[in-house]
Amino acid sequence: MLRIVLTRLFDAIPTVLLVLTLVFVSLRLLPGDPALVALGDQATAEQLELFREQTGLNAPIWEQYLTFLRDAVTLDFGTSLITGQPVLDTIARNLPYTLELTFVAVLLGALMGIPFGIFAAVRKNKLPDQSMRVFTLIGYAIPDFYLGALLLLFFGLNLGLFPVIGGGEGFLDRLHHVALPALTLAFVKIAFIGRLTRTALLEVLSKEYVRTARAKGAPERDVLLKHAMRNAMLPVTTGLGLSILATLSGSVAIELVFNRPGLGEMLMSAIAQRDYPMIQGGVIVFALFVVVVNTLVDIGYQIVDPRLRKAA
User: Which of 20, 78, 148, 172 is the most buried (most CB within 10 A)?
Assistant: First the structure.
């Protein structure tokens, strides 16, 4: 298992390097002067030049790139061009809010989507299955930010059942604040995971070993859970990994809709202010999470299907 983890991490190095390079280049192609944004229109030419010298913006591009890579390897993201605060401290303050939103949303998607898919598969072409098809279409059709705005207006502003701003303090308060945003992100996850579970389970139920287990008189519950569902979990594991990554990216819009702190809100603010160190630090964290999630999915494959360990 350790060899598999190390292999996946080593394979991810070119991907992370490519992401870092694209981030660096794309930021330099954006219109606007970071020094002018930071100091304002009233800044003199001397003040602008001094700011660029202090922040390294006047260095050659190749030198800025090498410095950026060196700092990225050591997780030294520098200081914000706008606030002057260490980027790592700002990320540390915002990261827990994004992680809790992602965790709760994916957990809701799995806890509701998997049973939904199982129920639809065992009731194929009946009312539960038809209901899931309709729910899946709705889940795919409604954008996250639009659904979030509807839930915010109805449950937050009109009924006053949930807060409409902030991330909360303390466990129960933070759970109260994260409920609506997580439900918004979980809506499409329930549809996706449910549909995936149904498809995978129907395919496994048609296999010869399932028919053999039934012919031997095994209880239907054992056939479903011990034989069929265990083998159907491989694509579901993939779906859960994709759901985590999709939720991380979707959290950007949802944090803005619900006025929540988090990496998404931090990045959008940094992009508007051309805060290079803050943008670079945030994107590096997202890239690292992609690597970690992909590695965990690979480990999940080995747990669900031990035969893959020999092929790895």
Answer: 148
- Taking the C-alpha atoms of residue 295 and residue 6, their distance in angstroms, rounded to an integer, is 9
Cα 312 to Cα 3, 13, 221, 296: the distances in Å are: 9, 19, 32, 14
pLDDT tens sequence across 17-37: 888 888 888 877 777 777 777
For residue 165 the two structure tokens come to 């701003």
Helix/strand/coil for 85: coil
- Burial class of residue 258 in the structure, from the number of CB atoms within 10 Å of its CB (0-12 exposed, 13-18 middle, 19+ buried): buried
Instruction: Read off the amino acid at residue 153.
Output: L
Q: Are 98 and 248 in contact (CB under 8 A)?
A: yes
Q: What is the pLDDT of residue 29?
A: 78
Q: What is the DSSP string of 249-297?
A: HHHHHHHHHTT--SHHHHHHHHHHTT-HHHHHHHHHHHHHHHHHHHHHH
Nearest to 198 by CA among 248, 262, 129: 129
Looking at residue 118, its amino acid is I
CA distance 181 to 105: 8
Q: Mean pLDDT, to the nearest integer, of 278-283?
A: 85
- Between CA 58 and CA 49 the distance in angstroms is 8
**What is the rounded CA–CA span in Å between residue 162 and residue 173?**
10
CATH number at 87-272: 1.10.3720.10
Residue 205: which pLDDT band, with cuts at 50, 70 and 90? confident
> Residue 309 — pLDDT band, cuts 50, 70, 90?
low
Q: How far is CA 114 from CA 42, 104, 232, 254, in A?
A: 58, 15, 11, 24
